[in-house]
Write a structure and sequence with these properties.
With about 210 residues, this protein is α/β, with parallel strands linked by helices. The chain contains 7 helices and 7 strands.
């Protein structure tokens, strides 16, 4: 992501944080009920019990709280580019790991069983291209995912009744097609009652050859 867009996003969330505090209004991601729906969908990517989990754009660590509420004991790590949000997360959840990191620009040495991102890349960028950014994020998320788990990312769909100028609307079929260039094992979820969709990616399997009868 262009550094100018990154600064705009950082300033936006820091300003909302001063206005609303630790509240979903700071994230501008709808209502708690909608957030639970999308977390329900993302968590269906696989069994996270005992797994390592990375949450890209973790915000206030709400997905970690979701896992705790359901007694899903995973080794959770949250990344966010906003240091103010990470500071709050560390105070709220000292038992988890939170880091100020940019998945695109920082080198990630660790691998994770599951990689998640929810409502992170929906703001329309002014200096960069949303499609290029999300594809780069999806590839990096896939690359740092182990064979055990998978990647689950949600975003706003282009199949909507109206559009807001500040948001970017992704075409689910194009995101699905791109994910298929990374792995054969892709799931597109566009069945839940929000104007959003989610994609799951799992590590690839060896293709069947013409003479493979096993």
């Amino acid at each position: 992501m262009d550094d100018r867009d990154k600064q705009i996003i950082n300033d936006r969330y820091s300003n909302r944080l001063q206005q609303y505090g630790d509240d979903i209004k700071t994230m501008a991601s709808g209502t708690p009920e909608r957030r639970q729906i999308r977390f329900d969908v993302l968590s269906q990517v696989g069994n996270m019990a005992g797994a390592s989990v990375l949450d890209i754009g973790c915000g206030f660590g709400d997905f970690y709280q979701y896992l705790k509420d359901r007694d899903i004991r995973a080794k959770y790590t949250g990344y966010d580019i906003n240091g103010d949000l990470i500071k709050i997360c560390r105070n709220k959840f000292p038992e988890a790991d939170f880091e100020v990191k940019d998945i695109q620009k920082d080198t990630i040495f660790e691998k994770f069983d599951f990689v998640f991102s929810s409502q992170t890349f929906n703001n329309k960028l002014q200096y960069d291209d949303n499609e290029k950014v999300i594809k780069d994020v999806l590839k990096k998320a896939y690359d740092i995912c182990t064979d055990r788990g998978g990647v689950a990312v949600d975003m706003i769909t282009s199949y909507v009744d109206f559009k807001e100028a500040r948001l970017h609307y992704y075409k689910p079929e194009e995101i699905f097609s791109y994910c298929k260039t990374l792995t054969k094992r892709v799931v597109l979820r566009h069945d839940y009652p929000l104007f959003e969709f989610a994609v799951y990616m799992y590590k690839d399997f060896k293709g069947w050859g013409k003479n493979d009868t096993k």
